[in-house]
Amino acid sequence: MVEAEKLIEIVKGTKTFFENRAAAGNIRVKGRADYATQVDDSVQKYLYRKFQNLYPEIKFIGEETYSGEKVEGSMWIVDPVDGTTNLIHDYRQSAVSVALAEDGKIVLGIIYHPYTDELYLAEAGKGAYKNGQKISVSAVSDMEHSLISVGTSPYHREHAEKNFEMFKRVFLQCEDIRRSGSAALDLAHVAEGSIEAYFERNLKIWDYAAGMLLVEEAGGYVTDYEGARIGTEVAASDVAAVNSKLQNALLKILVE
């Protein structure tokens, strides 16, 4: 059994890496609008080393070294910097995302915002917390008064026309839309109730694993655009996270 407090201490230790602007400027190009920096690599190595020391029996998937492994047995699923483009620009909307999978289910999720020291924690069946205080999704029940975050899927520009048509449909029915550039933070914000929903195409499991558990433990739903539950396959998934009141209304717009 892992100890959440020990994990929190380890994850908070990543803060110093984000403060290194020289490392953030050491950039490796993986594809169009798809980058890794020395910060990404350093955070992942740090977490791998710390987790292996404590729990050597648990396997590890990290975005920066992924080479085709399946999520099976006990496994950490880590995005060392969710929001690398933000990091490069010093936009300060990046997060560390850590999830633990057990036999195909996410049982623990941590999202850490190093610029604000906000730490979100969820354990299966135990609720969702922000800095130790229990959180829940919002109670907004109509689209007109909902604030919704979108993701533009920047690695998949072939979907741009369809995506922006969808954003327009949502915008015309909700109060307003937002775009943070970090799936992990958007999911955390759905869980804490500061936004009503978030959706984005083609996310990988390290983008949403921890946040998915946070939203569900906070009383919300995370599905694909058709309303089907998302599993722990690494292949890209379309993700829609929403509070308990607006799921049907949002999904109806997404599949129009």
Note down, in words, how this protein is organized:
By secondary structure, this protein is of the alpha+beta class. The protein has two domains: 4-134, Fructose-1,6-Bisphosphatase, Chain A, domain 1, CATH 3.30.540.10; 143-254, D-Maltodextrin-Binding Protein, domain 2. 33% of the residues lie in helices and 29% in strands. The chain is built from nine helices and 14 strands. A seven-stranded mixed beta sheet has the order 3-4-5-6-7-8-9, sandwiched between helices. Helix 7 runs parallel beside helix 8 (205-217). The chain is globular. The protein starts with a helix and ends with a helix. The model has no long low-confidence stretch (mean pLDDT 95).
Query: How many structural domains does the protein architecture include?
Result: 2
Number of strands: 14
Order of helices and strands: HHHEEHEEHEEEEEEHEHEHEEH
The amount of helix comes to 25-40%
Q: Poorly predicted ranges (pLDDT <50, ≥5 residues)?
A: none
Report the average pLDDT across residues: 95
In this structure, how is the largest beta sheet organized? 7 strands, mixed
Give a concise summary:
It contains nine helices and 14 strands.
